[in-house]
Amino acid sequence: MIDPVIQQLKGKLIVSCQAYMGEPLRHPETMAQMARACELGGAGGIRCQGLSDISAIKGRTEVPVIGIWKEGHEGVYITPTLRHARACVAAGADIVAVDATDRPRPDGKTLEDTVRPLKEEGVLVMADCATIEDIRHAFAIGCDIASTTLSHPGAAIDCGMADGPDVALMRQATTEFPDKPVICEGRVHTPADAKAAMDAGAWAVVVGTAITHPTSITSWFVEAIEG
Q1: Which CATH class is domain 14-226?
Q2: What local confidence, expressed as pLDDT, does residue 154 receive?
Q3: Are 63 and 92 in contact (CB under 8 A)?
Q4: Cα–Cα dist 45/11, whole Å
Q5: DSSP assignment of 116-152, as one string?
Q6: How far is the C-alpha of 30 from the C-alpha of 99, rounded, in Å?
Q7: Average pLDDT of the residues of the chain
Q8: Residues 202-218, mean pLDDT to the nearest whole number
Q9: pTM of the full predicted structure?
Q10: CA–CA separation, 3 vs 210, rounded Å?
Q11: Helical H runs in the chain?
C-alpha cells in the first residue's frame, strides 16, 4: 500500500526551497514565503532543509513537506544520522529524506540501522540515491520513496545547467519497480527536463535551483549574454 501522503505527490512538481550558507535568502521566513509562492503556482510538495525552515514552511503551506537536515559538506551529510531524521520529524516534516548511498555514515551505523527505527515509528522515508543499487537496497529495507538526488557529480550543490536529469537511471528504476514511488531529482532546469523525467516514469519531479535560487538563475543569463 502506498501511503496517502506519498500518493498525493504522484504526477506532481515538488519544489526544493533551500538557500545556502551566507546567501541573502537564507532565512526561515523567506523560505516559507518562497514555499507558499510555489504552492500557489501549483507545486504539489515542498522539499526543504533545516529544522527552522521545515517548521516555518509546514506552518505556511498545506502540501506535503519533505524535510532534510544537512550537516557538513562532504560524504554523507543529507540527514546523516537517526538523530537528524528524528529532529526533522519533530520539526514537522511529513517525509524525511536521507542519504541512501553505501558511504560511511558519521555515526558508524548502516542505512538499515537508520531506516528500521524510523519505520517502526511510522515515519515516511525518502531515500536519496546515486545508483540503481542504492535504489534496490532502499526499497529492500523498507524506504517508502527512492529518488535520483545523488546520481550526478556535485549533487546537492549548484552545478550549473549542464547535462540535465539522470533520465537513464530513472527509466531503469521505474522499469524494475513499476509500482514503487521513484522520484526524479537533480539538474531539472527546464520544463522540458521535467517532462522528460515524467515520460521516463517518474512518480514526481523535484526542481530546486531553477525555481528558487535566483543567484544561479541570474548567472545563467549573465553567462549567456556575456559568454
Answers
A1: alpha beta
A2: 54
A3: no
A4: 11
A5: HHHHHTT-EEEEE-SSHHHHHHHHHTT-SEEE-TTSS
A6: 26
A7: 95
A8: 97
A9: 0.95
A10: 29
A11: 4-7, 28-40, 51-60, 82-91, 111-120, 132-140, 167-176, 191-199, 209-212, 214-226
